[in-house]
Amino acid sequence: MQARFVEFIQDVLITLHQNIRDLKERRGFADAEELTHIEAKLLAYQEMLSILQSSADEFNIPRDELGF
Fold first, then answer.
1. What is the pTM of this model?
2. Considering 1, 9, 17, 50, which has the largest number of Cβ atoms within 10 A of its Cβ?
3. DSSP E strands, 1-68
């Protein structure tokens, strides 16, 4: 079970990082309306990463074990 949990968290982190990378790329050629949407999504994804990092710290889980 523990190995599956680590894999799950790592998969979530990989997805968040990929989404952030994709949005940063799209930001370069977005119009003003889309840019606002992209920036809001970037903030949300970055906040989610911060929450996961803080929770890992609170539970004394080494960040490198989860792939931060």
1. 0.83
2. 9
3. none
Q: For 11-34, what is each residue's pLDDT tens digit?
A: 999 999 999 999 999 999 999 999
Which residues contact residue 65 at a Cβ distance below 8 angstroms, ignoring those fewer than 6 apart? 6
Distance CA 48, CA 36 (A): 19
Q: Which residues of 37-46 are buried (b: 16+ CB within 10 A; e: fewer)?
A: ebeeebeebe
The two structure tokens encoding residue 63? 């960040």
